[in-house]
């Protein structure tokens, strides 16, 4: 692991939720060549930590997230969640996708109730859980609406409520605000932090926006492309709520941008 | 789904413009030609349609003949759905099933339903629904006796491919994220199939059914031109043609058009009522 700064394991009290150890990913191109998407990667997430992975497209950040979700296999290395390897999707790990993840024929309430429903809960329990989390994201009055009646930002809030209603211990977010306009994006970032305060969750968040990472994360994983690898892991010691006008905020953003360009 | 303003003029009058124009041109042409065998006046055709209980060319009333055609269509169409939808979904869902069936389906699909007429006649002969149920002689016997298996077969062949293909594409076009998000929420294989794949493919299946219904009507008319029954709209059209009663031919054609568009309208109502969300799924 030549380029990785030694991670401080000082706060040894907090247990690790996710341990990514020596993971690599190779794809077979259509011409039969082996293409390395991700070089040996190590990463550890502690309880209630918010980690952002930032990098340009093609740096393997989404691949890393999908492997963590159990949607893709890793040939080398291991991904372990609470001490057990992740080989397939599991209930304790939730995921919010960039778009098109709500079932369009289900009402907002029935979308949020999906997790409890798949777990075999009674209708009343499912509805109760769904209502609780809809309230958390401030969409209670839209329970009976359908996804096509909502704006993009509201749909993503529903998707977040749906993931949380399954009570995951780790939440994976794959550029969840990537398809939204700048204004809505900022609103949702603020809201996500609020939700995290009320409902403590460990989050691994993938984005290509440096600003988003600096605004949200406790730690930022900076990746470089072709082949994807971790360039640097930075701790963000700014207190919440962070101000974008803050000098340290700007300096950190600038530093990460330079890292990405070099 | 159309979202144009629902003014009375736009929604009711606009679709009637071209039929009205056609009617005017038709009556002018009929007066000019002045030979009812070539082109009867609209009046004589609408006289037939306006007195539905009258006997038409010694074949019984129009509704009586419509009842036979409609029954044949509904049976053949239903069988096509019962076979086509499950097979299509299976082919879209499972690669193995697709590999197994795709060759035979694409071979058979290219054959026009009417090319099947000789072999179907050879296989089914004059067997009817009555042969199947072995009923005592009575009114129901009379009715079922005229619903020949050969006709149902031809309609089935015409209807199954649109239904099958659309069910298959319906399953295949589902965004992967939809399935993956269900998996991430703890969905098992059954959940993914019944709660994601099946509902997501309904819009495509319904539009396939609409195409299949049109095919069924095309096939019933051709099928009724086969020997074995003296009843049905197709039969009536052929009979009227052979005795030079072109007004009956045209009245029969109008009946077919009207009934199949009425059935299509029912499907459209269904889509508007239950598939309001479908834009989102593409």
Please give a structural write-up.
- The complex is a heterodimer of chains A (262) and B (282).
- Chain A has 262 residues and is of the alpha/beta class.
- Chain A folds into two domains: 171 residues, P-loop containing nucleotide triphosphate hydrolases (Rossmann fold), CATH 3.40.50; 65 residues, no CATH class.
- Helices cover 33% and strands 26% of the residues of chain A.
- Chain A is built from eight helices and ten strands.
- In chain A, the strands form two sheets. In chain A, strands 6-7-8-3-9-10 form a six-stranded mixed β-sheet, sandwiched between helices.
- In chain A, a hairpin with a 2-residue loop joins β4 and β5.
- In chain A, α4 packs across α5 and α7 crosses α8.
- The longest helix of chain A is centred in the last third of the chain and has 17 residues.
- Chain A is globular.
- The N terminus of chain A is likely disordered.
- Chain B is mostly helical and 282 residues long.
- Chain B is globular and about 70 Å long.
- Chain B starts with 7 loop residues before the first helix and ends in an 8-residue tail after the last helix.
- The longest helix of chain B has 35 residues.
- In chain B, α3 runs antiparallel to α4, α3 runs antiparallel to α10 and α8 runs antiparallel to α10.
- Chain B has one domain: MetI-like fold, CATH 1.10.3720.
- Classes of the chains: A alpha/beta (262), B mainly alpha (282).
- Chains A and B meet through β6, α3 and α5 of A and α9 and α10 of B.
Show the helix and strand layout.
The complex is a heterodimer of chains A (262) and B (282).
Chain A: E1 16-28, E2 34-46, E3 50-54, H1 61-69, E4 76-81, E5 84-85, E6 93-96, H2 108-112, H3 114-118, H4 123-136, H5 152-165, E7 170-174, H6 182-198, E8 202-207, H7 210-216, E9 219-224, E10 229-235, H8 247-261
Parallel strand pairs in A: 3-8, 3-9, 6-7, 7-8
Antiparallel strand pairs in A: 1-2, 1-4, 4-5, 9-10
Helix pairs in contact in A: 4-5, 7-8
Chain B: H1 8-33, H2 42-50, H3 62-93, H4 95-109, H5 117-124, H6 129-133, H7 139-145, H8 149-172, H9 176-184, H10 189-223, H11 233-242, H12 246-274
Helix pairs in contact in B: 2-12, 3-4, 3-8, 3-10, 5-8, 8-10, 9-10, 10-12, 11-12
